[in-house]
Design a protein that fits this description.
alpha+beta; homodimer; 20% helix; PSTPO5379-like; 11 strands; PSTPO5379-like fold; 6 helices; 7-stranded antiparallel sheet
Chain lengths: 261, 261
C-alpha cells in the first residue's frame, strides 16, 4: 500500500511511529489536511481575532480548549502532540527547535488551532480534470513572501506568504472557480500572472523542498498560505508557540468535499 | 436623462426611432443584453443544435416560432425588426448590407434566436467592486479571432471569436469566479494571460470601434463572444440570414441577476 492509498488514520499512525516523515502533499487525496498552531491560552483569543480578520490566510477549522491535545471533530484518535511529521518550536519569536514530537514541550495551557491547507484542494482539482503539471514533473508548489500586509491585531501582524502553482491558462480559470467555492482551504487565489505586482521574484522562494519550473504554456497562481501566521507569531515574540513544519500537515478524516460552499 | 439612466424600453424606443445608433455597451446597466440571429426556419433546428453544443459561445436565451417578430419573454413591446441599432444582412455567405431596420427584409419563415452577451456582466463586475480600467480610459472590450474550433454540426462550423478585457490580477480572479456563475452571458473566460496560446496577436483585433490598451498592472482575459456564430453562418453560405451588428445589442427588460447559477 502506498502513502496515496493509505487511510488518514493509518498515515497518522505511521507518522506517530516515525515510519513516515516526509511532506504530506499528495497523501490521502480527497481528505482535508490542516495547518496547526499551538500557543498559550493567554494569547488564544487574540489569535482567534487574527484568524477571523484574515479568513483566506488562516481559515479556522477547529480549536481546542486549553490543555486538550486532540481534535475530536477531525478524526479518530488524533494526538496533536505526535501526529504531524514535523513541528517548529518558537521561543520569544525565535525558532528554537524542529522536532517530530512535541510531547516534551506540552503545557496544560496550550490551545491548538487547525486551519485549512491548500494541499487539500489539489485532489479536487485533479478530480475536475485539471492538469497539475508540476506534480507530473515531480515538483511541488513553491512558497513566496509577498508585499501584501495581513490585517493586524494589536500583537499579530505580518506579510502574506503565498503558495504558487503554475497552470495552463484554461486550467487556471477552472482552478479559480473551483477553489473559490472552498474558502476553508484558502479559497480563490490572491494573485495570478504578474508576480512582481505582489513583490515576488520567482527565483527567490521563501522556503521550498525543491525548485519549481513554469513551462511556456503555464501562468503562476498564488494562494494564501497557512504558514503566514508563523510570521505573525515570530513578530509577536510569544514566550512559546508551536506550529507544523511547512508542508508537514495534520491529515484529518474529513473529506474536502464536505467544505464546499 | 443619459443612456445609462434610461430604461431598456426607452432605449429600444430611441433606437427604433433612430435617435440612438451607437454601440450599447454600458447602457441600462444590470439588464440583460442579447445577441440576435435570424435565419429561415429550414435551418433553425440545426442552428439550435449548434447553440446546444457550444453553450459558452451562444448561450440560448430565447427563440421565436417562424415569422414571429417579438420576444414576449424578454420585454414589453420588443420588435425584432427595428429595436437594434445595427443589423448585418448576409446573402449566400456574403455580407450584403448593414442597416438600422430589417423591416424590408422580413420573411414569414424567419426564426429569431437571442443569446447572452458579455456586455451584460460588466455591470455585475462593477457592482462587485471590480475596476474596469478600460472603461475609465474611454475604451471598450476588443474582439479577437482565436485558433479554437467551435464544435461543429453538418453545416455550421468556425473558429471562436473572443472578447478581451484587461484587468488587474486581483480583479481578474474575482471576475472569473463571478462570470462562472452566469453561463447564460458566456460564463467564465475561455483564456487568461497568454494570448499567443490561442493564436491571438493583441495588435490585430478582429473588429473594434477603437484601440484598447493593456496597462502594466493588467492581464488580458478572453470571453467567448456572441459574434462567433456569424462566422459559422458565413461558412454555411445560407441563402439569407441576419444578425445584430457587432456591439449593437438587443437590450431586454430582464435583470442579469436573474440568470445567476
Amino acid at each position: 500500500m502506498t502513502n496515496k492509498e493509505a487511510t488518514p488514520r493509518q498515515l497518522r499512525k505511521d507518522i506517530r511511529e516515525n515510519i513516515l516523515s516526509q511532506p504530506t502533499a499528495g497523501m490521502a487525496p480527497g481528505y482535508l489536511q490542516c495547518n496547526l498552531l499551538i500557543l498559550p491560552s493567554a494569547f488564544a483569543d487574540e489569535f482567534l481575532d487574527y484568524c477571523e480578520i484574515n479568513p483566506s490566510v488562516c481559515p479556522l477549522i477547529a480549536k481546542t480548549k486549553p490543555g486538550v491535545h486532540y481534535f475530536d471533530d477531525l478524526g479518530v484518535d488524533i494526538d496533536i502532540r505526535t501526529d504531524l511529521a514535523g513541528y517548529n518550536v518558537f521561543v520569544d519569536g525565535e525558532k528554537s527547535a524542529e522536532v517530530s514530537s512535541i510531547a516534551d514541550y506540552w503545557q496544560t495551557d496550550f490551545v491548538s488551532f487547525a486551519y485549512g491547507c491548500s494541499f487539500s484542494f489539489e485532489a479536487l482539482l485533479l478530480d475536475k480534470g485539471i492538469t497539475l503539471g508540476y506534480l507530473d514533473r515531480g515538483q511541488r508548489e513553491a512558497l513566496y513572501l509577498t508585499n501584501i500586509d495581513t490585517n493586524r491585531t494589536d500583537k499579530f501582524e505580518g506579510k502574506l506568504l503565498a503558495s504558487m502553482r503554475p497552470l495552463h491558462p484554461k486550467d487556471a480559470i477552472k482552478a479559480i472557480s473551483i477553489t473559490d467555492k472552498y474558502p476553508q482551504v484558502h479559497g480563490a487565489p490572491v494573485h495570478i500572472g504578474l508576480p512582481e505586482l505582489i513583490g515576488v521574484d520567482l527565483g527567490q522562494p521563501y522556503e521550498t523542498l525543491g525548485p519549481i519550473s513554469i513551462e511556456k504554456e503555464e501562468i503562476p497562481l498564488f494562494w494564501a498560505c497557512g504558514v503566514t501566521p508563523q510570521l505573525a507569531l515570530i513578530n509577536a515574540k510569544l514566550p512559546i508557540c508551536i506550529t507544523h513544519k511547512s508542508a508537514h500537515m495534520l491529515i484529518t478524516d474529513k473529506l474536502v468535499s464536505e467544505f464546499s460552499q
